[in-house]
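Quick start: read one record
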Amino acid sequence: MPTLAEAKRAIINAETAGDFAAADRMRRVVQQFEGGATPEPVGPSMLERQRQIQAEGQAKYAAARAAYSPPQEETGIFEDFTTGFGRGFVGVGESAALGLAALAEEETETQLRDRIKSVADSFAPEGGDPESFTSGLGSAFGSIAGIALPAAGVAVGAAPLGASAALASGLATGTAAALGVGAAAGEASERAREAGVSEEVRSAATLRGAPIGLLEVLPMARFVKSIDVPILSKLVDKLGPEQVNTIGEKVRSAALTGGYEAGQEVAAEALQNLNERQYNEAVEIFAGAGEAATFGGIAGGILDLFLGRRARDIKPKDLHQD
């Protein structure tokens, strides 16, 4: 007859082998032998073991589901470009509206900001690959259109109302300037909000960022040749002449190699970064400027190729005369 110790080892061996029924039978015998006393624990019961196995299986299944990533569908060039264009177009309006909302008190601004973002999200197209080159190029075109189309619409709409050509041009320029300034102010405000600075610091950053939007409408050649344009000279005093002179050199290079639009993108991105450096020294001055110049330069070059001569009202015979 086996000893009590041998019986307990047999229970362990049976459970190790997966024979929980035999282990339970031996456990009952041991309990009877000990006069009903609770035996020393020799492992979980069959029911407990089954629950443990079930819990482990559920945990593995949950982990597998969490780690599973469905295969990404291939996106086409047309889809990437059109969705990028839509996001760029809507983004300009969203930033301009956020810049306008920044003029309100904090509580009112927060409410307006939530509404603006909700509306922008409802209009922004879904789909495509936002990280693709084609989507980035489409976004550049959309950003240009977000300012150019409303301005052109104002000029066209003013003509039937009896406005002179000069007045219509002034209204269009004012519209473009308002959108550019508002969008730049909105971007500066959102950068400061993301950095978690105080309301006072964010308001100051928003005011400094607003004039940067004038680069959307000021002639790029004038900016490159003369840094001390009245509106920009005040910004130079705020941000530091040495850094802005460095920007001027970069803008000259970009304007020569990538067109005016590329230079404008470099200047605007760098000035926004300089503005952010007033409260966040970690940001690099030309961070993101290369990508912005690439997309902006390509978009500006294509638009100039097809629309530049007509926009400047230059006729082919004038070119021959020159």
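The chain is about 75% helix and 0% strand.
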